[in-house]
Amino acid sequence: MSEHIIKATGRNVEGKGASRRLRRAASIPAIIYGGKNPPQAIQLDHEKIWLASQHEWFYSSILSLELDGKAQDVLLRDMQRHPFKQIIMHLDFQRVDANQAIRVAVPLHFLNEDKSPAGKAADVVVTHELNEVEVSCLPKDLPEFIEIDLSALTVGDIVHLSELKLPKGVEIPELKLGKEHDVAVVIAKHGKEEVEEAIDAPEADVPAAKVAKKDEDKK
Length: 219
Known about the structure:
Elements: E1 5-10, H1 16-24, E2 27-33, E3 40-45, H2 46-52, H3 57-60, E4 63-67, E5 70-81, E6 88-95, E7 102-111, H4 117-120, E8 124-128, E9 132-137, E10 146-149, E11 158-160, E12 184-190, H5 191-199, H6 208-218
């Protein structure tokens, strides 16, 4: 069972009006779907879920959802937030089958970048091209995050997707699609290279109106 436990209660009344009433009562309307059981409408305490949502594990870990005294393993699949208030409007959870592989976006943790030759160099820029990666595995093998040790990173280095050290039983489906999908995760290069790239950018990228104005100014 997951160590991350969230508690919920069932709800019999659905619809926009019922959802608004729940939110006014500091609850979140939600739904559980998947597996052999039909979808079920539930509600959760907003304050407790809001606190949980501030943690990385809430989005990428197996959650033990206790519903009316019975626990079931689920994954958060969708969260709807209010456009400007700190309010969670709705949540979707998917039931997890222990014997079926799942695909989940897992966060990347970059270690020892400041201790690396690239990190110590004043004129080197280290960019993180990805902050998460989608993995496939059985629920029991799902990592909360994947670590990337950058202690040996030097200028000119590129860390690709295929170089990530994955836990046993975990794979990256993207890599099965061909070499062109083995994208860069981390790049270390001289800062002046970025400036040169910006200077060398083709004038075609400049809006036509600005080009026309330049030509007019020359007359």
